[in-house]
TrEMBL record:
Keyword Plastid listed: no
Protein name per its UniProtKB record: GTPase HflX
Gene3D superfamilies reported for this sequence: 6.10.250.2860, GTPase HflX, N-terminal domain, P-loop containing nucleotide triphosphate hydrolases
SUPFAM superfamilies (UniProt xref): P-loop containing nucleoside triphosphate hydrolases
Classification via InterPro entries: G_HFLX_dom, GTP-bd, GTP-bd_M, GTPase_HflX, GTPase_HflX_N, GTPase_HflX_N_sf, P-loop_NTPase, Small_GTP-bd
Chain's gene name: hflX
Family per record: Belongs to the TRAFAC class OBG-HflX-like GTPase superfamily. HflX GTPase family.
Description of how the protein assembles with itself and partners: Monomer. Associates with the 50S ribosomal subunit.
Provenance organism: Paenibacillus hodogayensis
Subcellular location: Cytoplasm
UniProt key word Transcription regulation: no
Amino acid sequence: MKQTTHEVTDGQTDKAVVVSLVLKSERLTEDMVQYSLDELIRLADSAGVQVLHSMVQTKDAVDSRWFVGKGKVEEIRAVAETLGANTAIFDQELSGAQVRNLEQALDLKIIDRTQLILDIFAQRAKTREGYLQVELAQLSYLLPRLSGHGVNLSRLGGGIGTRGPGETKLEMDRRYIRNRIHELRVSLHEVKRHRELHRVRRKKSGVFQVALVGYTNAGKSTLLNRLTQADVYAENQLFATLDPTSRALQLPNGQEVVLTDTVGFIQNLPHDLVAAFRATLEEVCEADLIVHVVDGSSDMQDAQMRVVDDVLRELGAHGKPTIVLFNKSDLQQDRRELRLGGQGEALRVSAFSPDDMERLKLAVQERLMGDTRSFVIPAGRGDLISLVYRVGDVLGQEVEGEDIRFDVRLKHNEFDKQGTMLQAFIAHEAIQQEGESY
Ligand SMILES: Nc1nc2c(ncn2[C@@H]2O[C@H](COP(=O)(O)OP(=O)(O)OP(=O)(O)O)[C@@H](O)[C@H]2O)c(=O)[nH]1
Ligand SMILES: [Mg+2]
């Protein structure tokens, strides 16, 4: 059992002991265990909880009653008492029964990783959609944990659950929660429909959508602020941003695109939570370009990138045009070669460097608009030539015998509709010509 006591400062905040259970079967390296624990401490800090002490226990199996096993519970109690902690935070999800047993045995507020994240989200929510999503996630978390006695709705506020509501009260709570979940889903559906209308309108306007996605604390909001002079909350906290924010970004060629900042991702994000935030993240699926922001100074960047890729895949946004942005280059000591999985290009930047921000804008511009193509069209085909002007900006044209060659920078939205038609025409002509020459 590994123990670390953390520096203590005085204050009115909750004081916690954090506990992580490592199962031998998981075959986690010491680094991975430490990383997860460090992340939990940062989450606690972001939630305004002060961590006094952390403990890691390795075991063969989870104790169904006590999670960590009765002997360890005694140790936690002793440590908490000595240091004056009022909360115990567990790095893994606990069952309702485990929470109740631990609460009774320790006389501490018992919180698990999911609840901690939910708590941060609840503190950060600012929009109606944000509130709805957080409440839905909280209730979805709570419902399967309501059983027997010991837990009631007052737990939602994070307070210690009052003990022993009778079965009738429990049934009422359950029914209330189910109804409320239903209401929330309906409301969110409405919000989503609204968003879709908005999106369709934006699509029609032909403005490119660029989404900043990435692991929490990678620097997404800082980038949005630096690129667009926005004033979004960017802090050295996990989940500083909850609600997506969009701003106009002017590219070097003068064209404006919409840049959206999104909620950060984290490992072991509970499924219910991802589901609750699906509406928000659907913006990402609609983007013309994804900028995947990576904290390039983190030792865990590979694991963090995998988490982001997994969530994107789950959302159906994987495989979209992507720029991978290794941020915080000012902090990076080793200049490793950029390793890239899958599609996309990579860029190493510091959000604090104006030069780097210009490079980034250029990269975005090139990625969105740099798609130029040549079309060779018979001079007599006015219908096709007018199509050429519809699918993009004609950068140049040259007469080649009876044909004209057009170099066109494609407008993506238009190209979907008209360009395929144009290509089909040209392919058709080419086949015919080939046929004639035989
Ligand atoms: N040194 C350095 N710090 C950076 C850079 N970019 C961002 N940061 C810092 O990293 C921390 C997190 O930045 P945010 O912009 O809040 O990160 P985020 O990705 O929006 O995080 P969430 O909203 O929590 O998902 C802040 O303390 C920033 O000042 C950078 O290029 N270099
Ligand atoms: Mg942010």
